[in-house]
Specification:
The structure is a single chain. The protein has 2 domains: 6-103, DNA polymerase, domain 1 (Orthogonal Bundle); 122-284, Orthogonal Bundle (hpI Integrase, Chain A), CATH 1.10.443. Helix content is 49%, strand content 3%. The protein has helices at residues 6-17, 23-41, 54-68, 72-91, 122-135, 140-150, 155-160, 201-213, 236-246, 266-269, 283-296, 301-308, 312-319, 324-332, and strands spanning 166-167, 174-177, 195-198. The protein has a 3-stranded antiparallel beta sheet.
């Protein structure tokens, strides 16, 4: 076997995977594997990756679980990534013992462990859009929230849109979502995530007005992004911050739902601290709420799956927040037709 330090092996792994994985996935793998290299350099006392034994894999698992008090979902995600890395190190660069990856045993998840039930309620979403329609029409906030909700876009997909992707001056307006990794706007599912999204007339009109009146006239390496800042194309964290800011109840004229003094609430006073509001939600929660809303309104699952760029089984497991009773009642209306 090759004598390679764990940190160097991780660096080689990430470099090898760079062309085939989205940048966000590379970041996630780097973060998850950083805990492993920290353990190797400290408590594990693993100088070379080839020294790693099955008992070490078990000790690392215990260290992550017991010393850091992480839940089973997080632990499973980190161990699954470690297993993939060790298999690569064994089979690709011969830097780890044969089949050492099989010694990395992820915890089994019980029912409910992997549920993600935080979502933007449809009534709250409509209240936010109504408020922005009246008091912030065609603003950056308005268009960001409108497209996240109505087009079920991920934050990276929204960031990737250029003016040329907006076909608005036709009888059938659409957004053409494109994977352009070479110029810094990859999609989560790469080429398979490319799709054309139909726009309702009201959405088309709002986006058009935004482009004509409030969009910053900036470029990004020769490209003209749809959503902008004064400095160019926004970072995904900027879009996330917009989502948190717009979903605070106090920001859109709704009643104050928390036992806080508005004058002393940092989340209310400072837009950059909006994420501290218990009611604010991320773009992912907006997306989950939108998917559930579409399904509750009898939009066929394949149509929602295609529009949102998510596999049907993933949609069922992680996004669809309808109860089994709600699903049964929706099916009931079709029974007389069979």
């Amino acid at each position: 076997m090759e004598d390679i330090e764990p940190t160097e092996a991780v660096r080689m792994y990430l470099a090898d995977k760079q062309p085939e994985l989205a940048q966000s996935t590379i970041y996630s793998h780097r973060s998850r594997l950083s805990h492993f290299t920290e353990w190797c350099a400290g408590e594990g006392d693993i100088k070379l990756l080839s020294e790693l034994d099955p008992i070490d894999c078990h000790r690392y698992k215990q260290w992550r679980r017991d010393e850091h008090d992480i839940n089973n979902v997080t632990l499973k995600t980190q161990l699954d990534t470690l297993r993939v890395f060790l298999r690569w190190a064994d089979e690709t660069i011969d830097a780890a013992k044969n089949d050492i990856s099989e010694a990395v045993l992820s915890p089994a998840l019980s029912d409910g462990d992997n549920e993600r039930d935080v979502m933007l309620d449809p009534e709250a979403a409509q209240a936010i859009l109504d408020y922005l329609e009246k008091y912030g029409y065609a603003s950056n906030d308005h268009v960001t929230m409108l497209l996240l909700w109505r087009c079920i876009l991920r934050r990276g997909s929204l960031r990737a849109l250029d003016l040329r992707d907006c076909e608005l001056d036709t009888d059938n307006p659409v957004l053409d979502v494109q994977h352009r990794p070479a110029s810094g706007t990859p999609l989560k599912n790469q080429g398979e995530g490319e799709r054309v999204i139909a726009l309702a007339p009201g959405v088309r009109e709002t986006v058009n007005d935004f482009i004509d009146t409030n969009r910053d006239d900036v470029t990004d390496d020769g490209r003209k992004p749809l959503i902008t800042t004064v400095h160019g194309r926004p970072h995904v964290q900027t879009i996330q911050a917009t989502a948190y800011a717009c979903t605070r109840p106090c920001a859109v004229g709704n009643e104050w739902p928390h036992d806080r003094d508005p004058e002393a609430c940092d989340a209310a006073k400072d837009r950059q601290l909006a994420y501290e509001c218990p009611s604010s939600v991320s773009p992912h929660a907006i997306r989950r709420g939108a998917i559930t809303h579409w399904l509750q309104n009898d939009v066929p699952q394949p149509a929602v799956s295609s529009r949102a760029d998510v596999q049907s089984d993933t949609l069922d497991k992680h996004y669809d927040q309808r109860t089994e009773r709600q699903k049964a009642e929706q099916r009931r209306k079709y029974l007389d037709q069979v």
